[in-house]
Amino acid sequence: MLEDRTTAPLTEGPARPTATGTGTTDATPPGPATPWPAAYPSGYAVVDVETTGLSRDDRIISAAVYRLDATGEVEDHWYTLVNPQRDPGPVWIHGLTSDKLADAPLFADIADEFAARLADRVLVAHNAVFDWSMIAREYARAERTAPVRQRLCTIALSKELGLPLPNHKLESLAAHFGVVQRHAHHALDDARVLAEAFRPSLRAAAGGGVRLPLLECRPLTEWSDGAARIGRQGTGSGSWVPNSSYQPGNWRASRKRPACPFPNPGRWEDGKPLKQGMRVAFSGDTSVDRELLEDRAFEAGLHIATSVSRLTSLLVTNDPDSGTSKTTKARAYGTPVIDEAAFGQLLQDVAPADGTARRDTPAADAPGPRTDVPPPGRSPASDG
Fold first, then answer.
1. Terminal CA-to-CA distance of the chain, rounded, Å?
2. Other residues' Cβ atoms within 10 Å of the Cβ of residue 289
């Protein structure tokens, strides 16, 4: 069942922090001399989800949303448990046992109400790429599209503001602004904490003329969901369509891959094909699951770069103006930048490395094995 559907404002404590650290007053909106930036969003949805784990086939087990107005004031909040239809994962972290989740609704049952909370707002989360990726995947499974077009990561915002934090944990951001955590890893309390910390952060950004680190959110149209299921969303009917190019056992749980066996031939040039050994980096959301896209590039003989350097051959991004570290470095180094659709076309005909024969099988049809190690943890490094 749904819990705590209240629309009451967040209960405030006796004192709130300043924008620069622990204090006794809340950061106030810019005065007449410093008007509120017209380019800032008109509303926000501060979100936290708890999940069964960190990999792409894990599920959401609880979700919370605090809706905020343009200046960060709380309008209402909402919370629900979600039955993941599987083991709940690390109960010792989130405390949600199978018994507690047994009578909870399925994600498909709460998708519409969740969407209503997100609609026409910027999604705000701590390490937002994780929360958004889990939400996007749940909506894809439910054959629906989340009404989210942009997200804001509070880790990225704290870096833009230059906050003197010892690390990028939520508890550190909360402590900086004097916000008390009551129940860590409970979606509703984590969302409350983040909402209280986001308000002074937002107002400090507005007062300082800081550009908000907004990133585009794209719904998944092709994704993987366990060893035997890789699917595509139908463009008209919204139905799940199997990808017959893949067979059971092709899904690979780890992003760790063997080293690319081909030398780097240098940068990609417009009008020419990709060549095996080229170093390709990805930034931002993709309509095809990021790991699937990287796997296909790897199988075509390309080197998957986790960052951008002077040696990077190409950056693939649908949002070149996002301001992520990768897009910023690509501009500085003059690295070629193309979008996902153009990359997909180039991937169909990758030129062989010097001294090797051309491959006859497109990368998307010929995935191969790689070292199977546990999936990476939820690292709050960046949202790129």
1. 35
2. 22
Q: Inter-axis angle of helices 187-207 and 154-161, to 10 degrees?
A: 30
Interval 110-132: pLDDT, tens: 999 999 999 999 999 999 999 99
The CA distance from 85 to 31, in Å, is 51
Kindly give the pairing relationship between strand 314-317 and strand 337-338.
parallel
Residue found under tokens 């790991």: 291
- Cβ(141)–Cβ(172) below 8 Å: no
201, 152, 151: which is closest to 174 by C-alpha? 201
Interatomic CA distance for residues 15 and 360, integer angstroms: 67
Q: How far apart are CA 171 and CA 181, in angstroms?
A: 7
In whole angstroms, what is the distance from residue 331 CA to residue 221 CA? Answer: 29
Domains and CATH numbers, the chain: 7-31+41-216 (3.30.420.10), 252-365 (3.40.50.10190)
* Residue among 141, 158, 89, 149 nearest 119 (CA): 149
Query: Structure pTM?
Result: 0.73
The residue type found at 105 is P
SS3 234: coil
375 burial via Cβ count (<10 Å: 0-12, 13-18, 19+): middle
3: which 2 tokens?
């819990």
Q: Are 370 and 252 in contact (CB under 8 A)?
A: yes
pLDDT in tens, 268-309: 999 999 999 999 999 999 999 888 899 999 999 999 999 999
Whole-number Å distance between alpha carbons of 37 and 214:
14
Q: Which tokens hold the place of 158?
A: 């704290």
Interior angle at CA 167, CA 134 and CA 156, nearest 5: 55
Provide DSSP, 253-292: S----PPPSS-------TTS--BTT-EEEEES--SB-HHH
Identify whether the C-beta of residue 224 lies closer than 8 Å to the C-beta of residue 292: yes
Answer yes or no: are the C-beta atoms of 293 and 221 closer than 8 Å: no
Q: Is 151 helix (H, G, I), strand (E, B) or coil?
A: strand
